[in-house]
Amino acid sequence: MVDRTGTPLVELRDISIAFGGIKAVDHVTVDLYPGEVVGLLGHNGAGKSTLIKCLSGAYQKDSGHILINGQEVEINDPRDARAQNIETIYQTLALADNVDAASNLFLGRELVNKWGFLDDAQMEAETRKIMGRLNPNFKKFNVPVSALSGGQRQSVAIARAVYFNAKILIMDEPTAALGPHETQMVAELIQELKAQGLGIFLIEHDIHNVMKLCDRASVMKNGQLVGTVDVKEVTDDDILGMIILGKKPAHLAA
Amino acid sequence: MTDTSHSQPPQGSAVSRFLRATEIDQGFLGRIGALLLIWLGFHLYGAIFLDQGLFLTPRNLWNLSVQTAYIGIMATGMVLIIIMREIDLSIGSIMGFVGVVMGLMQVDWLVPILGLGHPLIWIVTVAAGLAMGALIGAFQGVLIAYLAIPSFIVTLGGLLVWRGAAFVASGSTIAPLDATFVLFGGAGPFAAMGSTGSWMLAILACAAVIWITVVGRNARRKHGFAPRPVWAESFVAGFACLVILGAAAVVNAYNWAPGNLKIYFEKLGEPVPEGAAFGHGFAYPLLLMVVIVVAMTVLMNRTRFGRYVFAIGGNPEAAALSGINTQAMKVKVFALMGALAGLAAIVGSARQNSATNAMGVFDELYVIAAAVIGGTSLAGGVGTIYGAIIGALVLSSLQTGMVLIGFGDGSYQRMVTGVALVLAVWLDIVYRKRMK
Asked: ipTM, 2 decimals?
């Protein structure tokens, strides 16, 4: 059971962002506690990815506040987010296809030797270590990631997020491109990370995955927050109703 | 990068096993093969139709090394630009402008202040040339990165602006240049390091090759990766040493002309000894290019800077999401390209012993062609420094070869170069398709 009595790990308070007059995110407030998985749901274009990109530093919010452990922080670019131990697995995976797994894993945070030159051997060794834990079948360490399968690419993106001791993890549809076996592996990984006390924002379309993996679900529609519910108190249909109708279920609406 | 194949059981033909073990890129082999064919073709054509094959002579190969140098120097920078999915059309004009300003500087401005032949003249001029090139490049880079104007447009504008500026700066040829400055050009025996120095340098280079091989092996062993077969690494290192020593032998076999011997011994106040023969050795511009090639290769493969160039070329969005400042990177890469154009202006004007506002016309196209023939993909993300040098060698071989077999007229050279460019890219496409 998630303890929600203390300070939230992350609080996105009253966040708004507009693109050319269209309010992509309109005064949305969500929070996340340590050891919790919060699902973000909604139709395509509901504003989930945009909201989360304000936290990962890909976008800058127009207004609102971001609080980490109760402290207000400024996140203006991905470096700021990384400095707050926020790691993101993007839907597009955000991999540079022309370089190998180790180069992608350490992109922007390369290991260097004492003369400041890249320590490729060390990076490959570290990559082998973490991949051995996440995806023991992964063997293609020295080819560009364009030569990898969808699942292998996904595991590189996941490895990048978990290698650097993330405290807050953002996963944008991590299982969309995966087969059943790999989806199961991601589910197990989420449970493991949760147990370690990470907070995870999970953008997910599959209601079954939401019910299985998430503690709470925040539903968005047209840039606005419909509501946040505890998944134990609702059914699949309740959540579907929120997504489609944009209304909280009657028994929780009080 | 390294490969994984040594962990798999040997398979395929002996040739493919050999290539896998030595990690020699087939595309690289193909380019070397094409280059040797061009050399042999010109030589045999001369031998058969003109009664003497002039291509594969120490003299021609030495000249070829000098001619390749300044295109090669710029091609190393163009590789970075193209990897990042950009283009730079302005470098020929930057060469012209920087060359003219450097000419004015050493002849009209610094001589009255410092006196003829003062050593500060060439130092100040060279520093100013590099700085000017870098500043122009950085300025264009800012327009490209921060104002989001396509590099094609910015540098097309630059092509016109800097060429015009070169004409404004000086309407006439500026000559002769500072005597020390001229040594950068490799015109004549005094701009080469002589046979003793060349042999020593070649031996040092071989030692470096062996050292790098051993260090690489140890690094792999330290992390428990399977080392490559000893025979394969020995073969590659041995072959590289052979090429280096062979190159030294060739440039040392090209002897000074009697007239230059006379000048040399007159300066010493001695008569020319009986049977005196001095080899040229490596030309200074060639050494300069080798230094640039090594430095740029290290930059691309061993530093964060190079890793970011590749990452931006592979996926600009991913690079930005990884916290890489892609805009600053673009400015730096264009500044580097500008500085290399400045360096090429030094070599080019020194070689002619004069600065003209027409220097570098069409060179941006030859440089782009060299990078592309060398395997740099215009789609971005892929390219090597050594490939661009081979590309530059192919182009200058075609040009010198055409002169040697009597088609020295510029129009034929251009036609052949154009055909070679299209042919090279087509062969590359065919090769890549077959690999899939």
From this structure: 0.89
